[in-house]
Amino acid sequence: MTESSPFEKLCQIVSKLRAPDGCTWDREQTNEEAYEVAEAVKNEAHFREELGDLLLLVVMHAEIAREAGQFNIDSVIVEITDKLIRRHPHVFAVEAAVSAARRGNAADTAAATDAQAVIKQWEAIKHAEKKDATHYLASLPKALPALMRAEKAQKKAARVNFDWRDLSDVIAKVDEELQETKSAVASTDSRMIADEIGDLLFAVVNLARKCQLEAESLLHVATDKFVARFNKMEDRLRARGRKLGDASLEELDAIWEEIKTMTNDE
Question: Is the pTM of this model over 0.85?
Answer without folding.
Answer: no
